[in-house]
Predict the structure.
Amino acid sequence: MADQLSRVFAALADPTRRDMVARLTEADHTVNDLAAPYDVSLQAVSKHLKVLEEAGLVTRTREAQRRPVHLEAEVFDLMTKWIERYRRQAEERYRRLDDVLRSMPDDAAPIPPGGEGAAT
Amino acid sequence: MADQLSRVFAALADPTRRDMVARLTEADHTVNDLAAPYDVSLQAVSKHLKVLEEAGLVTRTREAQRRPVHLEAEVFDLMTKWIERYRRQAEERYRRLDDVLRSMPDDAAPIPPGGEGAAT
DNA sequence: TCGTTTGTCAACCATCGGGTTGACAACCAG
DNA sequence: CTGGTTGTCAACCCGATGGTTGACAAACGA
């Protein structure tokens, strides 16, 4: 799982981590703070944070013996870009398909056999 | 991994599957067709498609002995909604933080968090 | 009917991911 | 220095995941 985009998607594939991210949009939190609502060990939460950190979604700084966790929202853009790019493309294609269907009266050509294969 | 959002994120955490999705935005493809560029067995590709299907990202119909794979782009909205919601919230927060910093000449009041906000 | 193409299912294997517990490091308060 | 708080690291367990190969089903083409 080398690339960051994969790490970001993977990080957000876990409901607990998504919830953490959600809470971090409101304020920074310490680890204990973050862990409170979940019924898992502190170590498990620490692991989750590591995943989020390696995905670039959060940073952990030092403040006395506490480790405030801070959300880095720029990474969202990475996803948004990817998603939007292909969503737009897909919609574009549906629009075209729609045109095709609309321009097909009744007895349209039944798709020549073998003509489909390669595609671009 | 019950919820769909998790399944969608998990499905897109794999580069091969993202590539498949990308190609499917241009046109439907058969399984063999989809598998061609990758250096894995057809069965492996079939598994990937199953993951994408269970995430609601694609549908597989029947057409003679072929199983054309079709992208279902609506699911993207699910992600986009989630991402945008928290991205916006995070940005909002940064804006507020920025205000705080800007409005702190020397001896400004500490400004209790949460009292600020308000919409938009 | 028989063979080919297309794709899935099943079994197996190695790795990864999320959880646990135990030990310990870093820091502050007494 | 001692003790409490905060958090990480290491080892371990187990289910999920991604890959393989082998068998087989479904549909066409001859």
Notes: The domain at 4-73 of chain A is CATH 1.10.10.10 (Arc Repressor Mutant, subunit A).
